[in-house]
Amino acid sequence: MARYTGPITKKSRRYKLDLVGGDKNFELRPFPPGQHGRRRIQEKEYLTQLQEKQRARFTYGVMEKQFRRYYEEAATRPGQTGHNLLTILESRLDNVIYRAGLARTRRHARQLVTHGHFEVNGVRVDVPSYRVEQYDIITVRKQSIEAFPFQLARETYGDRPVPAWLQVVPGTLQILVHQLPVREQIDSQLTEQLIVELYSKN
Description:
Blueprint: H1 8-15, H2 24-28, H3 45-60, H4 64-76, H5 81-90, H6 93-99, H7 106-114, E1 118-120, E2 123-125, E3 137-140, H8 148-155, E4 166-169, E5 174-177, H9 192-200
Antiparallel strand pairs: 1-2, 1-3, 3-5, 4-5
């Protein structure tokens, strides 16, 4: 299961977007890393499109090959390719755990999933890229419900808004997927049309 393991704050500074969420180092130095980081870079169309794709990749923790497969799947679905791509990314299990407020960051959510703390419709799932469907029920396993991350999740529930396409039962931390999200329900700073333009060139 490939994933990026390098310094994420460097990537946040490179792509001018807090990829972690609450990254204090990024807030202190919101300019590209390196000795030439403050130098003005000429913004060209290809660079803008490439950076947007990289922002999406690192935001959701997806490697290039997998991201390309997501794009190809989105292009074959009816509707706008960019919106379809975001729906696919949002429906990943690690992202759903993060959006539901059970993890502080997507990286934290990925770790909780790989450690096997969750069941989907009663079946244990430890694959972060698992895609949820409408009416799926995600539960914390009985052996894990009293673990510290989930005690903390119950105490801090409500600090971050839960999107309308999900419902969380605070006591049991059960997640109900009412529907797959549409673009209007996705809180994202990404401009997905730039990603579509980049891939459509190839």
